[in-house]
Amino acid sequence: SDHMENIYGYLMKYTNLVTGWQYRFFVLNNDAGLLEYFVNEQSRHLKPRGTLQLAGAVISPSDEDSHTFTVNAASGEQYKLRATDAKERQHWVSRLQICTQHHTEAIGKNNPPLKSRSFSLASQGSANSPGAQRRPSQNAVSFFSVGHHRLPTGKRVPIMQPDHLVDVREMMSQAEGQQRDLIRSIECLPASGHLTSLDQDLLMLKATSMATMNCLNDCFHILQLQHASQQKGSLPAGTTISWLEPKISLANHFKNGAAQNFPAEINKPASVREEQSIAEPCQLTREPEEINPDEELEDICDDKEDDLGAVEEQRSVILHLLSQLKLGMDLTRVVLPTFILEKRSLLEMYADFMSHPDLFIAIASGGSAEERMIRFVEYYLTSFHEGRKGAIAKKPYNPIIGETFHCSWRMPRSRAAADAGSSSSAHSPSEQAALPKEPEGQAEPDYYTVKFVAEQVSHHPPVSGFYAECVERKMCVNAHVWTKSKFLGMSIGVTMVGEGVLHLLEHGEEYTFSLPCAYARSILTVPWVELGGKVNINCAKTGYSASINFHTKPFYGGKLHRVTGEVKQNMTNTVVCRVQGEWNSVLEFTYSNGETKYVDLTKLSVTRKRVRPLEKQGPFESRRLWQHVTESLRDGDIDKATEHKRALEERQRNEERLRAETETPWSTKYFLKDGDGWVYHKPLWKTVSAAQTQQTDSN
């Protein structure tokens, strides 16, 4: 058949967060049921770099864009691929699905019948087991009379004997009944006394039993599909075998198994009704707003997240939530309980990574390319400690689309000059550059200003753009980050997909960098944050690069929060600096001239950001948008915070639905789409370039 022809060609394959996407030559071998790939077409005669068995695989077009799709093998291995356009993706997806279906059916038809067991699956030799109680008349016809058409009388099915499925179904029915009795018994226990319904061991038993039954039901669903395939000879067109969705909606939170009902509309506080009735953001002005730094005041908020109280009290909710999740499940669309939230938006968290503006400004004053790269690495590694608020791992608010955050920092010029001088003496004996002189006759303030703006530019997938600049130092940084969170059992992993670029306009240098993965560990006891993964920092112009490894703690032994790295000159492959230590404690920098420098992050001075008062902020600026949720969390009123949060999320869903119905595209305010990334609408490199062009024309 034409549909079963072997096809081949180049596709982009996602390798990892560091390497990203790479072109590879793929071959679909229909006869063998294999998807193979090579480095390029010329190496096709060599051994493949990778091979996937397509029998039992699931081919899924991605909802990220119209070019991407994934191939999930039955072994658990996954290829994430990207075609050049939607048409090519459809071509590959359809051919892969046809090949997958063909070989999946072939395996089912060629498998011998299941042999009868001499023992019961429930309890060996038990006269009360479902196998012993099964009536002789139970067969494939009686089993499938509920969900499938009755087979013609006398027609034999030679492939599979269905009595084993009947046994399993009866056993599962009994297990489900016993599990319901178990839950009921636990919930009927008194709320106080020697053994209560909130006993931690009982809650764990309740959660794990529910998760086990959900998993067994999913497995049985797959067996049913396989059996149906053997009965009918083939799967219906377009049928795929996949995990079922959780039977209990994750949008609702439960307390000890009981749903929490929200108050009726008439009982909602005025602030909630106000949140729901704010005009749709696309109807508000989407024109960029120039924020006057003089209107911003030094921030007095200091919300450290060291309180475990709410997490301890709501442990039953966490256990119930965990019972609904599966390993590897994407948590992007899962509504998490309010009490695990920290009192700030994700956009503000990105701003808090800039809490050492003195180190940021000092990068540009490095006297050599080597020194500037080392200074950037130093700033990069010191940014994560202050970005976390306290030792307890809590989750910042998910920004809603159109949400923005503005702030700035002021750094005395005298302090910046002193920091630059002391820093350069430790880094390199090479020449030191003085700070640039300001134009004569122009009154300048005695401080540098670093401005910051962030915007949530996409909801699905959740992408944030942020930009910071120091005009006086002619430097700026632009970044976009897509947060992907997954459930990993007793921890949650967050991958920060995206890229940042630091521009030093005085030197014509660009430094590209990425962000490490983050993990919330021990989510049932005392949750804590860990960073992991390898990141690279590169400057193409100078040939300097840095490789940084954030090490996760081994299962046995080892230190927490360990980080190692090195800076080298790519042309000569010479390492000019090595770094080791902990990203939240002490870092040790060893330079090529033999000097060593220690940086104690717990003693580094933190410059407070400056933020406009709430009354001067727009309705979609983070602090004003989330103010009622934040106030309720500060007061310890979890129910009220949940209600305010739910109102914001419901409004966002309504707005998204309205845009879809009216076919109105979302319009961002400060960031513009640029390929796969997002760029600030008025970056400093464009402003400086335009000013230089104007000056040249006037001369």
Automatic annotation (TrEMBL):
What SUPFAM superfamilies does the record tag this protein with?
Oxysterol-binding protein-like (SSF144000), PH domain-like (SSF50729)
Q: Which organism is it from?
A: Daphoenositta chrysoptera
Q: Which gene encodes it?
A: Osbpl11
PROSITE patterns according to UniProt: OSBP (PS01013), PH_DOMAIN (PS50003)
Name one process (GO BP) from the record: lipid transport
Provide a GO CC annotation, any one. endosome
* Nucleotide-binding in keyword set: no
Spell out the Polar residues composition-biased ranges. Answer: 117-137
Highest lineage ranks of the organism? Eukaryota, Metazoa, Chordata, Craniata, Vertebrata
Q: Which Pfam families match?
A: Oxysterol_BP, PH
Q: Where is the PH domain?
A: 4-101
Do the record's keywords include Membrane?
Answer: yes
Record's protein name: Oxysterol-binding protein
InterPro entries (alphabetical):
OSBP_sf, Oxysterol-bd, Oxysterol-bd_CS, PH-like_dom_sf, PH_domain
What does the record give as the function of this protein? Plays a role in regulating ADIPOQ and FABP4 levels in differentiating adipocytes and is also involved in regulation of adipocyte triglyceride storage. Weakly binds 25-hydroxycholesterol. Interacts with OSBPL9 to function as lipid transfer proteins.
Q: Please give the subunit comment from the record.
A: Heterodimer with OSBPL9.
Kindly list the places in or outside the cell where this protein is found, as annotated in its UniProt entry: Endomembrane system; Endosome; Golgi apparatus
Q: CDD domains from the entry?
A: PH_ORP10_ORP11
Residue segments, region Disordered: 104-137, 418-440, 637-660
- Family designation: Belongs to the OSBP family.
Predominant subcellular localization, coarse grouping: membrane
Q: Which domain of life, per UniProt?
A: Eukaryota
> What UniProt keywords apply to this chain's record, in alphabetical order?
Acetylation, Endosome, Golgi apparatus, Lipid transport, Lipid-binding, Membrane, Transport
Q: Where is the composition biased (Low complexity)?
A: 418-434
A molecular function (GO) term: sterol binding
